[in-house]
Fold:
Amino acid sequence: MSTASARIALVGNPNSGKTALFNALTGGRQKVANYAGVTVEKKEGMVTTPGGRTLSVIDLPGTYSLRARSPDEEVTRDAVLGQLKGETPPDVVVCVADATNLRLVLRLILELRQVGRPMVLALNMFDIAQRQGLRIDLEGLARDIGAPIVTTVATRKRGIEDLVAQVEAKVEALAAAGDLDVPNTWHEPSPAEIRRAHAEAQRLMKAHVRPAERPDTMTGKIDAVLLHPVAGLAILLALLFVMFQAVFAWAGPLMDGIEGGIGALGGLVATVMPDGLLQSLIVDGLIAGVGSVLVFLPQILILFFFIILLEDFGYMARAAFLMDKIMGGAGLHGRAFIPLLSSFACAIPGVMATRVIDSKRDRLTTIMVAPLMTCSARIPVYTLIIAAFIPNQTVWGFASLQGVVMFGLYVAGITSALAISFIARRLFWRGQVEPFLMELPTYKTPDPKSVLRNLWQRAEIFINRAGRIILPLMVLIWVLSTFPYPPEGATGPAIDYSFAGRLGHLLHPLFAPIGFNWQMTVALIPGMAAREVAVGALGTVYAVANAEEQVGTLAGALSADWSLAMGLAFLTWYVFAPQCAPTLAVVKRETNSWLWPTVMFAYMVTLAYLAAMGVYHGAVALGWG
Amino acid sequence: MDHLTPAAALAADPQPAQGEVRLSQARLRDRGVIGSVHVRPDVDHHGLSAEELERRLLELGFVEGAAIEVIHEGAIGRDPIAVRLDDMRVALRRHDAADVVIRLDARSAAR
Structure:
């Protein structure tokens, strides 16, 4: 079979329906991985031709030019040029073009032709072109670009067999000819060369394409509303509101279900296995640990459902347009909006979503501030402390004081993220700003199957992370919290005698200036696994069983033991502190260096310490000590 | 080479010829054809080299002769802007658009 296989690369402009074509070609036979050494996602799938040949197809990131500017585009360039580490060069390049938007892709085709690999042009979304009355002289164009043209409608699987047949013909011709004897003459084009290529593309357009008789007017009409300076922003805010409602309201029952399932599984294992260390490792370490992260899966999926839907519809570029000025004021790129939004559910998908940002500097800044957004793991901590210390009373006649404090914590997260990125821009990037240049794609009805497939892939990636990165961390934290055992006849909670407990006691002098008692300090250590684990840990040190269900009991214990100033200091700490080892691990993965997670940890700890100290002493001065 | 600050650059902006306007100064509904895309090397492009900015503009279709119309403006400071560029729509900041000079059509020039 390996002798019969060939490698096919899909290349095209963004928004050309390349991924839809990839899905139509490969169906369910695809996998998502990372390219060696870079954080760009590699989507690979298999097609079996009618002749029995197996084609391996890779979906390369969309680009306007082989002159790469982002890590994604570098992968496309290197893959096409056959310079990608650990990858064999493609035998045939399939250039995917939006048939209604040919001008820029023609210039890309001219670049691809210089590379000298056999090429097939797939004119995708051909049904829309026909509906618009766009006439393309396929034969003439194919002759001029020196590549066969296939018309496709990827979303309806039209033209796929034809495309496979053309690709197979190229593969056979290649096999017959032996080796490529067309030299690769591609180099980074100069401005003058880009202009010449445009002129050539313009000539091809004039010669072979008759403009649409009924051009799309829908996009203009929708944009008149969605990009309206006032209505557009109002709609964006309304959309965000709905998204948040969905993330927090719809996910609730599912999260309860997962928690229940994990709890039941732990209980089952506990009854089946004999008591002892192994049982504790599996139940308290592995099952509970992974469960504490998996519980965020519903929120992440709901969030990604909205993001994928809006992306496929074509709205995300508009959201970036609407938010660019506001984000830009803080030194962030308009495209940072989506990653930061995702971070409200969890910083991990947020950090992963920064891949849409071309510039390395902008991407790093966004990654650095993403964990300051109030992720949902903070909510259990906030809820507990607020319930313990903030009286349930009405302020200004209508608002609940507890709600106001919660809102204030969100605002604190957002404003500090904006302030940090502003300072980072001034201090480290010395005012360098990446240009904001972005195509606003034509609106399209999202394809439900493709949305679901994409969602499934997100889920797989997240679960994979939970397994590979988070699992070992959980085991480490379990070890710290379990060993050594309490001595015979010990009266305090077991965690007090463990490494975590000793570390907590050891660190306590450091945390005393910000008002923390030793119990709080101890809870911070298992709380590194995920923020909400601190609630369970406080429950353990205050010997409240099932702390997450018995928030009332624990809150009572806390309000009896802590002063208001201590509670506020703890809240403040949780706004800023990097209390999440999985996030740091993902940052390491995404930036491919230990430097950035170290920087993140250091600045967030400093910020959290100073802010908590300020709040504590301020509160003490107000007589709340 | 000394780089001018954006404000100084704006002050020193050589005025385009009659009937022409820099895309950074264009108003909503201004329409015409791109006359030139020559990014000035003596102006600060926020750390990006002039040639790089020029190439990026060209790659996205800001090329001499392309039909262009300003179709949307942002709410704050009328920035960024969205333009119809031949058959596509592109969003960009006014700052990055300073060296795209548009030859306005008669209707836009008369406004």
Q: What stands out?
A: The mean pLDDT of chain A is 86. The longest helix of chain A spans residues 231-272. The longest strand of chain A covers residues 41-48. Chain A has 25 helices and twelve strands.
